[in-house]
Task: structure prediction
Amino acid sequence: MRKPSRKSFVLLVLCVTVAGVAYEWHATPEAERSVVQQQAPPPEPTALATLQKLKQLGARWKRNQHGQVYWLFLKRLPLADDDLTVLKELPEVQTLTLRGVHTIKGNHFTDDGLRHVGQLKKLRYFDLSVNYHLTDVGMRHLESLKQLEHLDLSGCRRFSDACGKSLAQLTSLRTLKLRQTSFTPDVLTALSQLPELKYLSLNNNKGMWLDEKTIVPLEKMPLEELVNLRIKDENLPLIARLKSLKSLPFGPDRSIKDDQLSYLTHIRQIKKLNLVLTRGISDTSQLKQLRTLPELETLSISLGKRSEGDPLDRSGLLALAKIPALKELGIGLVNVPVLEAISHCTQVQKLNLNVDSSQFQPTDLAYLKEMSRLKDVTVQIALVSDDLWATLGKVKSLEEISFNRGWPPQKEPPPFSMTSLKQLQNLPHLKGLDLNGFPVTDEGLGYLGQCRTLERLGLNNAPITNAGLLQLRHLSQLKKFSFYGSKIDREPAEELHQFIPQCEIEDNWCCGCMTIYADRRFTQK
Result:
């Protein structure tokens, strides 16, 4: 057998050495390698020529840290379709506003202009509202916007159910606004294919009613907010099937009967509610369900007229004290037992009472002292008397006092002695006082002038005179003062303003409304 040559032997040793070095290099942790990594070149900023085009259009824009336009505002500009060719030079745009182009004379914006918008692959927010000449044809150009999360089509009244298929392609959509369009309930089937849709504002022109037909696609959506949905009382139970809702699907001013409350208690973020107790104070137990609404802040309850001999059920009224977020409570018709029950709501800061005057006296408001956080109270003007001022003067937490004048408003001013206004000096935090239509005289101004914490004072139609006005000169915190309908002249009002220059003084001198505005040197911090 032939022996290997010396040259072959050296070559073999060299190969083994190289293989060993390669093994060691791969076995070495990446952090210990001394290999210099090549860094990717920084993104190119938006070209100056492109920015010049935007300037000529009248656009506003914002740029990111790399100098690229990512936010573009083209609201109410007389655009033409060709103007939007600039969008192909702005691939990083995530927010685009084209609201109201059709409201400006000289625009030539058509469906074809949306072809350029469809090139913005990173677009997330698009406001196309109030462009009422666009049609379903234009919507097809937007199907490629797979990252779009917010779309506002409000006021685009020619958009109809035919573009439902195009909307269904926008699978990242979370917010969709369709007010004042031509969509009907039939479009809901297409929208139910959007897996991320959280907010839907429906067309309020076509009457989107909740019924057995529309609930089927709606309950397939992960909706948290549903706006402009119309609901008849008999269909309120269907709301319970919209499991993901976090707010009411109708306006907060709509009244709900107590026996309908169970259909809403799964909506955890209700902040305002108007309730009617169908059995009055004979059965308030349904109010206990409100304890499941931890974010309820404003509650209005109508108790109805109490029949003679009706028993009082306090259980639901007492349960209101268990709603931690409740800050504003309106209730009527209130009698003494009802007021005693709600006085346990020590978390309430604003209270509006409509009392049953046949069963109520001003001194009964003494229960308000138990509401330690009460700052703002509104009562009926029929309660105004010397006893009322004496009673309110003992509710030390009060900051605002106002009156419900009813309808039609009471014509005769409430009777009380001017000296009773002295009781208001006992309120250390009083900021606002509504005495419009009250027979406050110059004597009364003397007592009010000692309420040094007052910031707002209304004395419209009060029989005060020029001579008494300066008694308010020590109200150094006063910011707004009105006395429409009085006989105060401008000159004494300006003299008062020299003492309290931070105050805005309103009256109707001569033949029109006049205002002495606050001196900004004293209002700006």
About this structure: The domain at 47-250 is CATH 3.80.10.10 (Leucine-rich repeat, LRR (right-handed beta-alpha superhelix)). The mean pLDDT is 90. The chain has 14 helices and 20 strands. The CA atoms of residues 355 and 412 lie 19 Å apart.
